[in-house]
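Quick one, C-alpha cells below:
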C-alpha cells in the first residue's frame, strides 16, 4: 500500500494497493503467510512462511520487485 502526503503533511485519503505474489525462489512454492515490513520504490522486503512436505512451516525473508520484461 502506498499512502502519499499532502503539502500540509496530512495523509491523502486515497491509497494505491499492489498485490505481491511471494514464492520461494528455489521451488516456486507460494507463501502461506507473508508480512511486508518495508518498501522503497518498487522493492518490498519482509518475512514469509512456506509449507514443508512434512506439514511444518519454514520461515524466510523475501525481497519482491517487479519483473522487467
Amino acid at each position: 500500500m502506498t499512502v502519499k502526503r499532502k503539502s500540509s503533511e496530512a495523509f491523502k485519503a486515497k491509497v494505491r494497493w499492489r498485490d505481491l505474489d511471494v514464492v520461494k525462489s528455489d521451488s516456486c512454492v507460494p507463501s502461506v503467510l507473508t508480512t511486508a515490513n518495508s518498501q522503497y520504490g518498487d522493492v518490498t522486503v519482509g518475512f514469509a512462511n512456506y509449507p514443508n512436505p512434512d506439514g511444518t512451516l519454514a520461515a524466510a525473508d523475501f525481497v519482491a520487485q517487479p519483473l522487467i520484461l
